[in-house]
Amino acid sequence: MTLFDAVADLPLVVDDYRLRRHERDTSSGFSRVTTVFELHGDGYVGRGEDVTYDADDHEALQSAHDFDFDGEYAFDEFSAMLDDVELFPEPPGQTAARHYRRWGVESAALDLALRQAETNLGDVLDRSYDPVRFVVSTRLGEPPTFDRIEAIQAVTPTAEFKLDPVSEWSDDLVADLADTGAVRLLDLKGQYEGTEVDQPADPDLYRRVLEEFPDAVVEDPALTDETRPLFDGEEGRVSWDYPITGVESVEDLPFEPDWLNIKPSRFGTVESLLDTLDYCADHDISRYGGGQFELGVGRDHIQALASLFYADAPNDVAPGGYNDPELDDDLPASPLSPPADPAGIL
User: Fold this and answer.
1) I need a labelling partner for 146 at 20 to 30 A (CA). Which of 33, 62, 165, 274 fits?
2) Cα distances (angstroms) measured from residue 18 to each of 24, 48, 53, 101, 158
3) In this structure, are residues 25 and 66 in contact, taking their beta carbons and an 8 Å threshold?
4) Looking at residues 234-244, what average pLDDT do you find?
5) Gap between the Cα atoms of 130 and 303, Å rounded
6) Residues in Cβ contact with 293 at an 8 Å cutoff, skipping those fewer than 6 apart
7) Alpha carbon distance 283, 268 (integer Å)
8) What whole-number distance in Å separates Cα of residue 296 and Cα of residue 3?
9) pLDDT tens-digit profile of 295-341?
């Protein structure tokens, strides 16, 4: 039986829905907006978070939403029904947003179906919720400095990090970062196009990253005639994030992966996510969880999935407080405790 088979037949009753808008400033210098979908049915509420990045898409949703989700379904029937639902009152600013919103609705439906069955995802999948190791993802400012690392270490001395290398990193900064011994993931952002975080292929940067951080996993390089030779013999350190939206996208990678960053919202549907997790298990691919500045229940969901499937990996699922411009003194350290009384997805 596949993972999706275990949830496909869950009964689901939807009577109504509501939307909850969230907004928060981040340490990366932008204001994050998300929308939580609440599906109501039989006295229960299921929640899922739409992490679409363009604030205008959330504003359009709030002002013009009119969905007909009501009905009695098996979970897979609800998912199939969504194939014919236009979730955007206006075309989204980014094509990927269609997956993000679909995940917001589907995860809310799965959460509701599990709660209506008075169970949780771990029990249905016959997996345990384990303590979650996490890394703190942060950018280092413009120009890049060590200041943010120092601020995080002052609060959590044992923190491990996921960082986004840029060509402007100085030799001194690279040395300071390497000296921490705490850099676990390095996201080269080489697969992005037309975003504020694009980092063009830079052979000098890639060479420094590979040499100065020999134990770190390196994510999303742009493989060109100049950069591909740098990864000869280093393929086992390479991970993929941005391109990964399902099994077919994994099979289309330039070489068989040893690592994948699993961001549920990129998959759109629960079936695509669970099928990819099955594929990873069958092909011995290591996984870790990734986040997208979730502000609501979406953060709980990515932590729950990490807890169930890759708890010991360097998961980019740190509590949201680590994204705040000013850090609280009582942020939890890794690992996160599993939920004491899980219900729904968590």
Assistant:
1) 33
2) 20, 11, 20, 14, 40
3) no
4) 97
5) 10
6) 26, 28, 32, 34, 51, 320, 323
7) 22
8) 25
9) 999 999 999 999 999 999 999 999 999 998 899 999 999 999 998 89
CA 130 to CA 143: how far, in whole Å? 39
Using DSSP, state whether 22 is helix, strand or coil.
strand
Q: Which two tokens stand for residue 119?
A: 């169970």
- Residue whose entry in the numeric block shows the structure tokens 């008075």: 118
Nearest to 243 by CA among 96, 114, 24: 96
Other CB atoms within a 10 A radius of the CB of residue 173 amount to 17
Per-residue pLDDT of 62-96, as tens digits, reads 999 999 999 999 999 999 999 999 999 999 999 99
Which amino acid type is present at position 88? Answer: F
pLDDT exceeds 80 at position 150: yes
Q: Measured between alpha carbons, how far is 92 from 52 in angstroms, rounded to an integer?
A: 9
Work out the angle between the directed axes of helices 270-282 and 75-82 (0-180°, nearest 10): 110
pTM over the 0.90 mark:
yes
Residues 206-225: what's their mean pLDDT? 97
The Cβ-side half-sphere exposure at 247, using a 13 Å CA radius, reads 13
Residue with tokens 């609440």: 38
Residue 56 clears pLDDT 70, i.e. is over it: yes
At 182 the three-state DSSP class reads coil
Evaluated on CA atoms 293, 299, 303, 308, the torsion sign reads negative
CA distances 126 to 2, 4, 123, 197, 203, Å, are: 12, 12, 5, 39, 45
Domains located in the chain, CATH noted: 3-121 (3.30.390.10), 124-323 (3.20.20.120)
Long-range contacts of 152-156 (CB under 8 A, 24+ apart): 152/322, 152/327, 153/180, 155/327, 155/328, 155/329, 155/331, 156/331, 156/333
Token duo for residue 344: 């729904």
